[in-house]
Amino acid sequence: MTGQEDILFGKIALARGFITREYLDECVRLQVDGRKEPLGKLLREKGYITQDNLETVLRLQDKRLGKMHARLRVPKREILFGRIAVKLGMAKKEQVFESLREQALLRDMGKKYRLGQVMIMKGYLSVGQVEMLLRCQHKTILRCPKCTTQFNVEGYLPQMAITCRKCGGATLEEPSQLASPEVAEDEHRRAPAGHHIGDYELIAEISRGGMGVVYKAKRKDFDRIVALKMLLDEKRSSENEVTRFKHEAESIARLSHPNIVAIYDLNVSEGRYYFAMEFVEGESLEDVLERRRPTIKKSLEIAYTLALALHYAHRRGIYHRDVKPSNILMEKETGRIVLTDFGLAVKEEQTSRLTRSGYAMGTPTYMAPEQCQAQASPAAFDARTDIYQLGTLLFEMLTGNPPFDSPSPIEILLKKISQDAPEPRLTNPEIPLAAQEICMRCLRRDKSERYQTCEELAGHLEMLITGSGEELLELYSPALDTLKVFVTLGLAGVAVYCGYQLYLFFSGHV
Question: Which pTM does this prediction carry?
């Protein structure tokens, strides 16, 4: 590990509150004195950082460095490809590393293969999975009808005319079926400013996922800046994806709340669905958590705001089902918290799932136990599902890590079904006991043991934020209830014993 990487490791660990400055300085002195081990290993050896926190810092460090081991000479685009494959659960980290080593060996032999091609050859990915991962990288595979060369085109939109740079005689087209992952060098081409979708003029791309893309855009007649969301590829999107997309717009349209993103328009342009939302200038909570852990008070305030917003949605029969840091925006100028992305939201009156039977939808780290069940029905998702996810978010803000974390999504799901969440005070002893009890009640595996409404949760959070110590003791706490039982039994035992001794004294037996 280079000095630069050790410096970054130390900065991240300090910012997250995983180590103290004294511990860091001590291990740095060991390196100065001749120890060759990486900083993280020294901290772990001394017992100054837990294994979970070490792994968290290493993941964040790798994400920021944007590169792999120097001897592999891995381009950044390949690193991104591998990371997305792991994040989506399509491949294991070990499989990506093995494929990168194989790619390096092939390169040394004079053979150029993309990481996706290598992973297909080794049987780790299918051709369809490679295509999806490329779409997540802001790329679309286009084919020249004349010379049949395929290109990875970045930021492609329908109706964009891109001439094949190899033969120069034809316009690239989207193949109806991808027969091979073989592509020429990337043809980088972003959507030009001024490209129009319906009544909107695109300004810049904001984000892109496996199913949709979001642009900053301006409505021509109203001069309004919006966030325009559309499907990546209408022709290749399944009926289920199109239904989910329209369902998201319909769900948000039913809501009008200052902490829920507003929707202005749902329409179709050239056979492509899109909807325009409120544009929030700021950053996601995920970005904030990568830099630093919020204070305990700020974490509670964020959870309180989200609880009220979710309660508003629940009263109108909408359950979000995907409450996580990347779906929460923090407005730059006002600090307003905004809940977004209702793509997995379920309506109370639904009678059929928007997800495929036997396939859990959501983000494993934040999913509730009932979402991990393969054959769960819509009736299984209600306000308590969102409460569990909000509890997971609160746990992460208070401790720096989610309650269940693992490189394997399947392992996370199994833990959620079979294990109780750990107490956050084990990681951060500064967390008030009442805050821990609120968090743990949200994270009960049995829905009946959680808060039953977000209104009840918000009430307890408000008491914790603004109340006195006496008021906090009134919060529901299984631990306190158990303590009260033992105290009561103890006092009763003392009373019986004293009464017996008095009886013996007055009866002349002593």
Answer: 0.60
